[in-house]
Design a protein that fits this description.
There is one protein chain. The protein is α/β, with parallel strands linked by helices. The chain has one domain: Uracil-DNA glycosylase-like domain (Uracil-DNA Glycosylase, subunit E), CATH 3.40.470.10. It is built from eight helices and six strands. A six-stranded mixed sheet has the order 1-3-2-4-6-5, sandwiched between helices. Strand 5 and strand 6 form a beta hairpin. The two termini are about 25 Å apart.
Length: about 220
């Protein structure tokens, strides 16, 4: 594995900068969901996963309480992961349509998935300081992905985090509004907005498999 990425993983996994997130993560990992009572939760911050030479980058908000917080891999072991990987597989971006645990054989194709925040926040609502504390990890990870051409932001907070990142680090100016399928050029990077693959968005039909697959295929062509 890439030495730079290994170094980043060690820093992320040992991070305890945010007392609120640290406390909440520990609470979730000790008061487990009934169906996972016999499992040992990962209970650490989470790094990105996938192809370090990828042109296509997906950005989510944070680890799910009983998904990545439990399994240790982004978008793994929960309903959002089930939906997302059905779509990635249908788009030719993964070798299988499921992401269940870190030993499940999953591989991403020309794709890397990461997060704006590395720990699960209460009610899925991070505060500005928590996002700021994670911003150095976010920058280091994105800078490491030298071949990136297209960034897909899964949800508004991920979108806003990316906009702030490019404004602060690349001098991007202007106003940017989130929406599914919106496209903006950030120097040599294309930024696409995408509804988050949450059960709420799926159940209300705000997002469905054809809509998500269409966006992923569009991203592949742009890359």
């Amino acid at each position: 594995m890439n030495k730079q990425f290994l170094s980043l993983k060690k820093k992320v996994h040992s991070c305890k900068k945010c007392p609120r997130l640290f406390k909440f993560r520990n609470k979730i990992s000790s008061q487990k969901r009934k169906s996972y009572q016999n499992e040992v939760y990962w209970n650490k911050p989470v790094t990105g996963f996938g192809d370090l030479n990828a042109k296509l980058i997906l950005i989510g908000l944070a680890p799910a309480a009983h998904g990545a917080t439990r399994t240790g891999r982004v978008f793994t072991g929960d309903k959002s992961a089930d939906f997302l990987f059905k779509c990635l597989f249908k788009s030719g971006l993964s070798n299988q349509p499921n992401s269940d645990h870190i030993q499940d054989g999953l591989k991403l194709k020309n794709t890397f998935i990461t997060l704006a925040l590395r720990c699960v926040p209460p009610q899925d609502k991070p505060n500005p300081l928590e996002l700021k504390n994670c911003s150095n990890f976010f920058k280091e990870e994105l800078d490491m992905l030298k071949n990136k051409k297209v960034i897909i932001t899964l949800g508004k907070i991920a979108f806003d985090t990316c906009i702030k990142f490019f404004k602060e680090n690349y001098g991007i100016t202007g106003s940017f509004k989130f929406g599914h399928g919106v496209k903006y050029k950030m120097n040599d990077i294309v930024l696409l907005g995408c509804y988050h693959p949450s059960p709420r968005n799926v159940n209300t039909k705000r997002i469905d498999i054809p809509k998500m697959v269409s966006l992923f295929k569009k991203a592949k062509k742009l890359g």
